[in-house]
Write a structure and sequence with these properties.
The chain has 2 domains: about 45 residues, no CATH class; about 140 residues, Trna Endonuclease, Chain: A, domain 1, CATH 3.40.1350. The N and C termini lie far apart (about 65 Å). It is of the alpha+beta class. The radius of gyration is 21 Å and the shape is globular. About 25% of the residues lie in helices and about 30% in strands. A 5-stranded mixed β-sheet has the order 4-5-6-8-9, with helices on both faces. The chain has a 4-stranded antiparallel β-sheet with strand order 7-10-11-12. Strands 1-3-2 form a 3-stranded antiparallel β-sheet.
Length: about 200
């Protein structure tokens, strides 16, 4: 097949890991590296199939919390463990996100996530939850607080914030509303661990 929308496989040994150009003239090609081979995509294919190059929404929002975390000098290692992450081999982290631009933000806690928060802390000391509130910031909580606010069942947590204010957390269990400083992430996780 020749023409605009075809994919042509061209094995190359020294291809770049990232595209040479994202927006390019019709005649230009973009080269991507895959595991076994490199393939070339025409500009027409890229324009018609933008989802092929897009970042998953969850990766975008979770990345906001992870970048701040890994840039903290106290963070040594982060590895994935469904449905969350293990930080420094002794902290469990669950990251949830809301795409809403403004307060209030709502976060659904699933049954699998409740089990992750309730898991026995054999060699892992504490569990934390990072709630990414759109582009506003990250609300940091302990797993124990999330379990108290939700009643240890799958449910929804609501986070709200007034202009220049703190985050306010509410859940289905009445009377446990609490505030969290806006700048608590990720220091809260490491400071609380050190105080134990």
């Amino acid at each position: 097949m020749a023409g605009g929308g075809c994919v042509r496989w061209e094995p190359q040994e020294t291809a770049p890991l990232y595209p040479k150009a994202i927006s390019c003239p019709q005649s230009a090609k973009v080269i991507y590296k895959t595991r076994p081979e490199v393939f070339t995509l025409s500009n027409d294919f890229i324009i018609r199939n933008r989802a092929f190059l897009s970042i998953a929404k969850q990766d975008f929002y979770k990345g906001a919390a992870l970048v701040v975390l890994i840039e903290d000098i106290r963070c040594v290692a982060v590895r994935s463990r469904t449905p969350g992450y293990i930080v420094n081999n002794d902290l469990r982290l669950l990251i949830k996100y809301s795409t809403h631009a403004r307060s209030p933000w709502r976060f659904a806690i699933t049954d699998e996530e409740v089990r992750f928060l309730r898991a026995e802390p054999c060699q892992i000391c504490r569990t934390f939850v990072a709630l990414v509130c759109g582009g506003d910031g990250v609300c940091a909580l302990t797993g124990e607080i999330v379990l108290k606010v939700t009643g240890s069942i799958p449910s929804t947590i609501s986070v709200s914030r007034r202009y220049h204010g703190q985050y306010w957390i509410a859940g289905p269990v009445q009377g446990l509303d609490m505030s969290v400083p806006v700048n608590a992430w990720p220091g809260y996780m490491f400071d609380l661990q050190r105080d134990d």
